[in-house]
Design a protein that fits this description.
The protein contains 10 helices and 12 strands. The strands form 2 sheets. Strands 1, 2, 3, 4, 5, 8, 9, 10, 11 and 12 form a 10-stranded mixed sheet that branches. Strands 6-7 form a two-stranded antiparallel sheet. Bound molecules: ligand PBG and zinc ion. Zinc ion binds next to loops.
């Protein structure tokens, strides 16, 4: 049975997915919240974005609301890497207690910020080349459930494991969260453009790379099949990243799945504009708006971007 009503559940998701012009309501602002941090710390390359403690986060959301931003993607950065399934739940609870239905809070769901080795999966102890899929899916679904229990409005799995959307959906449904949507990072390339993020989220792998689970940019079939897989597993919406590396795939994936498809303008893409501007080689604001217009032209129904909170100043309407 399909649950199309999840796409209509509240005004934020209705505006996010409306097949309409480029507006602030189609943008999602990431937040890096570091458990136990007092104040905030700069993130190299991501101007206008900081690693924040909870108080700084609440202040920032307040400001973002005054700039008409309603959609957020929360990255929980735990204080210690002990794989506790409840890390981040206090953050979610505190944010939702304060802002309630004024905001729509997506929570990135992965293991890499909390695992000792910085990988998005769990490897077998005896063979670090082999992914223990069952243990990985169990861990991801229990994270997702604890986020939903804490008040998350949507779950966004970013690990790229086969079967995780189905596993998470099953876990949510069994526990009374039939209304919580899953935005799957469905086509995620192994990319050199995640650098600033990995520093911010403390998620750099300590050995190897992510090529066993993220897609090789040369492979169009794999890129499309990964999104089809997530669609078949019950994802409510699909997301492709990096945005510029996926621009040719938005339309075919939309055509083949008929699901809402969005893009993530990742940290390295955003930072590259900031670095050009710093050298006086571009106008940051204009360049940023240009990239969003291109993503929208390509058919992206929503955009995750570190610049969402600037959109009002760039002239977008809510
Ligand atoms: C981790 C995750 C990554 C991003 C979002 N979730 C990085 C990675 O896979 O290494 C990248 C976001 C960005 O670069 O802005 N699962
Ligand atoms: Zn990860």
């Amino acid at each position: 049975m399909q649950h199309l009503m999840r796409q209509r559940a509240n005004r934020h998701i209705r505006e996010l997915l409306a097949q309409d012009g480029l507006k602030i309501s189609k943008l999602i602002q990431p937040l890096f919240v570091v458990e136990g941090l007092i104040g905030e710390e700069k993130i190299s390359g991501l101007k206008g974005n900081n690693r924040m403690g909870i108080d700084a986060t609440l202040n920032q959301i307040e400001k973002d609301l005054s700039n008409e931003v309603r959609n957020f993607m929360l990255f929980n950065v735990p204080a210690d890497k002990d794989m506790k399934a409840n890390f981040g739940t206090n953050t979610i609870r505190t944010i939702k207690e304060k802002f309630g239905s004024d905001i729509h809070l997506w929570v990135d769901t992965c293991l890499c910020s909390s695992s000792h080795d910085g990988h998005c999966c769990i490897y077998y102890e005896e063979d670090k080349n082999k992914i223990n899929l069952k243990a990985t899916l169990n861990a991801l679904s229990s994270f997702a459930l604890s986020y939903a229990n804490a008040g998350a409005d949507g779950i966004a799995p970013s690990d790229m494991m086969d079967g995780r959307v189905a596993a998470i959906r099953n876990q949510l449904d069994k526990n009374g969260h039939i209304d919580i949507p899953i935005m799957s990072y469905s086509t995620k390339f192994a990319s050199e453009f995640y650098g600033p993020f990995r520093a911010a989220a403390n998620s750099k792998p300590s050995f190897g790379d992510r090529k066993q689970y993220q897609i090789d940019v040369r492979n169009r079939n794999d890129a499309i099949n990964s999104s089809l897989r997530c669609s078949n597993e019950g994802a409510d919406m699909l997301m492709l990243k990096p945005a510029m590396s996926s621009i040719d795939l938005v339309a075919p994936i939309h055509t083949q799945t008929n699901l809402p498809v969005g893009v993530y303008q990742v940290s390295g893409e955003y930072a590259s504009l900031a670095l050009l501007a710093r050298e006086g080689l571009t106008n940051f604001d204009k360049a940023l708006l240009e990239t969003w217009q291109v993503f929208h032209r390509a058919g992206a129904q929503f955009i995750i971007t570190y610049g969402a909170r600037k959109a009002l100043k760039l002239g977008l309407s809510k």
